[in-house]
Design brief:
It contains 23 helices and 20 strands. It has 570 residues and is of the alpha/beta class. The radius of gyration is 24 Å and the shape is globular.
């Protein structure tokens, strides 16, 4: 049947199950936008193409499947680069479709011509330049398959304007493109080696990363922790893979992880790293990382094995398949003394319930996040930006469900939260969604508030407003003698700004006000922005300085009004 390339594009997207795309039109992608009106796909008009990629990313991370972002050539495409890199670093499956100038003009510096496939080559799983209409269907099918297979990630499809306009004889083809055969998840020798190390270990710790969530291996992780009686520490992106209330859940590891978790890792005699990549924010100084521990590493990406941390057993394969095979042969083990020792370390750090602290007249970010957790009963999907509030959320909001924390980990992209929350809303229409942002990152993508208003969707936004670029200020306080260069931050009136965008704005500056504004936000039918005026020079504790050993943490001063971490589960 005769179809234009633009029609083939949309028919291919429909066949992939796409029901929503996030984009911004322009000249080189205009034929596709014209054809879009014929197809049952909802288009969300963003206010910046970076927002489109973050929305597609948030959609994917919330469990909606492969996210789709669309933009035009030149600046439209280059505006997507930060979002593509964010998805690449965190293994998020998105497909970005861009228009390109017509084929005869490529290479002649035509208006809005940019080599976007070349630009994105290092930050995508694959980049396509399509110049013939008959290739569009196959390329779209391959792009989705690549984005979701193996270690997920972004794929770029750049389509010339003439390929969109030209007609072709097209027949749907659902045949999957050939990819390398997956490796066996667990060989007999690796399985036996793991069982041997587990049986001889007295101080094991599981390190659980985002791969557990991507591999849908939450049940297998829980079964391993319970049967082998092994405590579980999580990376930032692994939060939610084991309920926060589970007896074996230690909490987050790393630079701003729980103090007892980092000490447990350093004292361990066996580490089981599952779906994580030993990045620098997790390990601290590699020379002295878990010096007495044997190490087992399972990851679907073979390039991650022995890249940062040498391991005794490295297994490339699906973490769920590997754990299922291991569990068939694993006998029950007990590590009661080890877990009691960790509990004692935890008791030393978590000395009191944050809800019982006296009201000193100051509002701290920890108060805000804890109260949001309490009011939502830990059931909300929380999307954070990057900085101090991101770490406080990881400490004070206790996630019971998988895919309930969406945040930029590897790239650390400020401005991620608001658009990503929009994507999450379309993936999870029935969920309660909170975007927790800083006053700095929020201003980078605040224009997407109008996207929220135009789409008439419900998202609550909590701005942790401390008047600084908070995490940078903290580094200046600790390591640069409080020389606050370019970190004091003037912001607009966020309540008026919200109202100008067409959403409700609220404000709280004292602890007793938090409960009321959170309740009002949750009850309001539309989106709400809350400006929380918090203590300006509070810091995130504990903190492992760059280059320090994992256990060499800067701890919160003993006389501080706040406990170091949120240990309560009330």
């Amino acid at each position: 049947m005769k179809r234009t390339g633009a029609q083939v594009l949309w028919e291919s997207l429909v066949r992939e199950g796409v029901r929503v795309v996030f984009g911004y039109p322009g000249g080189a992608i205009l034929p596709a936008y014209d054809a879009m009106l014929e197809y049952p796909i909802h288009h969300v008009l963003v206010r910046h193409e970076q927002g489109a990629t973050h929305m597609a990313d948030g959609f994917a991370r919330a469990g909606g499947g492969v996210g789709v972002a669309i933009g035009t050539s030149g600046p439209g495409a280059t505006n997507m680069v930060t979002g593509i890199a964010t998805a690449m670093m965190d293994s998020s499956p998105i497909v970005c479709i861009t228009g390109q100038v017509a084929s005869p003009f490529i290479g002649y510096d035509a208006f809005q011509e940019t080599d976007i496939t070349g630009i994105t080559l290092p930050i995508t799983k694959h980049s396509y330049l399509v110049s013939k209409p008959q290739d569009i269907g196959r390329v779209v099918r391959e792009a989705f398959h690549l984005a979701r297979s193996g270690r997920p990630g972004p794929v770029l499809v750049d389509i010339t304007k003439d390929a969109q306009q030209a007609a072709t004889d097209w027949q749907p083809d659902d045949q999957m493109p050939p990819l390398p055969e997956p490796r066996p998840a667990l060989s007999a020798s690796d399985r036996d080696g793991m069982l041997d190390l587990l049986s001889r270990s007295h101080r094991p710790v599981i390190l659980a990363g985002r791969g557990i969530l991507l591999g849908n291996a939450m049940a297998e992780l829980r079964a391993l922790a319970e049967r082998a009686d092994v405590p579980v520490a999580m990376t930032l992106l692994g939060i939610g893979c084991l309920p926060a209330s589970h007896s074996h859940n230690l909490g987050m590891m790393g630079m701003h992880g729980e103090a007892w978790v980092n000490h447990a890792i350093q004292e361990a005699d066996l580490l089981l790293a599952l779906g994580m990549r030993f990045d620098d924010r997790v390990t601290g100084n590699l020379k002295n990382y878990a010096p007495n521990a044997r190490k087992i590493h399972i990851d679907i990406d073979a390039s991650e094995l022995n890249k940062n941390v040498p391991v005794d057993i490295g297994i490339s394969g699906d973490v769920g398949d590997a754990l299922r095979e291991l569990l068939v042969h694993l006998q029950s083990l007990k590590h009661e003394a080890w877990r009691a020792h960790i509990k004692a370390m935890k008791g030393e750090a978590a000395v009191r319930d944050i809800t019982l602290m006296p009201d000193t007249g100051h509002l701290y970010a920890a108060h805000v996040i804890h109260d949001i957790w309490r009011h939502t009963q830990g059931k909300a999907v929380v999307v954070t930006d990057v900085g101090q509030h991101q770490m406080w959320e990881a400490q004070y909001y206790h996630h019971e469900e998988p895919l309930s924390l969406i945040t930029s980990g590897g790239l650390g992209t400020m401005g991620f939260a608001l658009p990503a929350a929009i994507g999450a809303r379309f993936a999870r229409p029935g969920a309660e969604i909170w975007a927790i942002v800083g006053d700095g990152g929020f201003q980078m993508t605040q224009a997407e508030l109008t996207t929220i208003a135009q789409e008439n969707i419900k998202i609550n936004v909590a701005i942790i407003n401390n008047g600084y670029l908070g995490m940078v200020r903290q580094w200046q306080e600790f390591f640069y003698e409080r020389r606050y260069s370019a970190t004091p931050l003037r912001s607009p009136d966020f309540v008026k700004l919200a109202e100008a965008h067409g959403v409700t704005g609220l404000r709280a500056s004292r602890r007793p006000e938090v409960e009321g504004v959170v309740a009002r936000a949750r009850q309001a039918p539309g989106a709400v922005v809350i400006d929380f005026r918090v203590e300006q020079e509070d810091s995130v504790y504990p903190m492992v300085p760059a280059g320090a050993d994992l256990h060499q943490m800067i701890r919160r001063p003993a006389k501080s009004v706040l406990a170091e971490t949120a240990s309560d589960r009330n």
